[in-house]
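Recall the central idea of this unit: under ordinary conditions, the amino acid sequence of a chain determines the structure it adopts. In this exercise we apply that idea directly, starting from the sequence alone.
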Amino acid sequence: MTPLPSGLPPCLPILGGGIALLMLCIAWRRSEARAIVVALATLLLAFASLWRPALPWPGGPAATLLVPDGWFTYIAGLILLSSAATVIMAWRGTGTQADEFYLLLLLGTLGALVMAGSADMVALFLGLETLSLSLLGLIAWHRTQPTADEAAIKYLVLSGLSSAILLFGLALSYATTGSLRFAAPVPTGPDGPAIPLAATALILTGLFFKLSAVPFHTWLPDVMEGAPTPVAAFIAVVSKIALFAALARYFAGADLAHPGTATAELAIVAVLSMLGGNLLALGQTNLKRLLAGSSIAHVGYLLLALLSPGPFGLASAAFYLAAYAIATTGAFAAIRGADLSDIAGWRGMFRRRPALALAMAIMLVSLAGIPPAVGFFAKTYIVIAGVSAQRIVLLGALIAGSIIGLYYYLNIVRAMMESAPEDHHPARTLPAHAALIAALAIVTLAAGIFPETLVRQTRALLPPAPAHDILYGERT
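Accordingly, the structure predicted from this sequence is:
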């Protein structure tokens, strides 16, 4: 096997420098406008540096903590752009003395990037804990709201529990392999099959808790309902992208094309997430809880792509991550722009605020997988990957879940087409929020009408080769 690509991605020191600069600005004088400028400039500079060569990294064991390859570049781009959208979304929505809010967002983004590029258990855990601790402060930001306290306590307890389970699994994996490097889960070891199987089960449990995959999903609707809307978007998009990227890299050396190590477990969780997430969203009247159920279902769709190695597997997952990030961020931005999270408040929105209602409808249509939005082609891409890998049961669950999803997505569109209530006075959308919503709606439609550009990019970053070759270099 050729040596792993090594070096420090330039985006990480840029983010670290931006965090340090923002801390100095907070110590000097509080200003939300200054904090937003620093945060946005840091994120955009980090995004521009993704195509720069990796910085030299001293030799030794630390040289391969991170892998600055094409997979990292693509995932990091999605994370940085989604975080920038979250910063814009949070403008004038975090209360007084909001500088620390943007500091925590940058810290969470840094943790997500470390997870996305990790090829080592130490890097994975450090990135995960950096992201988790930042989210804890962000979720509890609105301290005067009882739902925020409840959401933060639930996240604290369950996040700590899942981290402990994951750390125990990583320790058992190290005891089996003698290395902190990611390695394909093996069914047997020197002491028999018990320890390797326990390690794989614990690692999967910890990651599934963080991903909120069924049956480890019950915390997500409560947390997203209690968190501020920009934080809910950050949880649903940035943390999910980073966790899936780490999960894909962890299983890069496993042969998921045939029944074997963890394949059945991943397939069961995928089916449960596709069906359970959509059924959970079906009965919700709160849009943030509904989108929480939707994000659980989309985790199941991504697991189908992960379980379909071949010429379309990881490339379809990369395409789907982009489509999911655009539409989900846009839906939360529309909720933030209208300052309405209950579906009842969106009744008659096409009559009261047609532009906002049209943008929200585009996002929902994309999440439902209806053309011409980009979500249709993303879901089609995953179906092609599943057909090529002959994942018949998983494809059946995807079709059933998508049919369920059509009802609750289009139900919101139907509510927006009803007559407007007479006693409702709509909130004014800030220009920055309106520009963000319009840009995301345009990208959602443009990527759906001209999907070949994004398809070529994902296929170029992730060539049609086994996952192990894509993420760890070519085999000799």
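The radius of gyration is 21 Å.
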